[in-house]
Structures are given as C-alpha cells and as structure tokens.
Specification:
binds zinc ion; 81 residues; alpha+beta; single chain
C-alpha cells in the first residue's frame, strides 16, 4: 500500500506539524496533530522516515510516500510556518 502525497498536501501537512512542534513545550493546550488525509483519524504519532521518503501515521497505519518534490515543498512550508 502507499498513497503518495502531492506537494500541496505535503506542504500543508508539514506546516501543521511545524505549528504543532513549536507549540509543544510551552502550550497548555497543545495543537493536535494533523489528521490522516485518507481516513481523517487523528494519529497519536506521525513519523517521517529518516530519508524523507515516506510518512507513517500512527493509529490507522496509513503510509504516504513522498516524492522529492513533495518533500521539498513540505520542508519549505515547515520553515515558513
Ligand atoms: Zn489513515
């Protein structure tokens, strides 16, 4: 299995993750993780593979592959989040 994320979706996901990570240590109301694009469940964790080629959502187990263009779009969005 493995849907792929478009650059636009990857950008959105990474931006949301960036917001979530920035809020984490100090916020009394942590920002929830972005939901899975397929099943809309809230994951307990989102893991980016070390080489940046895929994202795994905890809970539902969906995995999305990232083309290089999608990864770059995501990282750029995360930096500017
Ligand atoms: Zn899912």
């Amino acid at each position: 299995m493995g849907a792929s994320l478009t650059p636009a979706r990857a950008a959105r996901l990474f931006a949301d993750l960036g917001t979530q990570q920035q809020a984490f240590p100090s916020s009394a109301r942590p920002v929830p993780l972005p939901h899975c694009p397929v099943c809309r469940r809230r994951p307990s964790s989102i893991v980016l593979k070390a080489d940046g080629s895929a994202v795994d959502f905890g809970e539902c187990g969906h995995r999305f592959t990232l083309a290089r263009s999608a990864l770059l779009a995501g990282l750029a969005a995360q930096r500017s989040a």
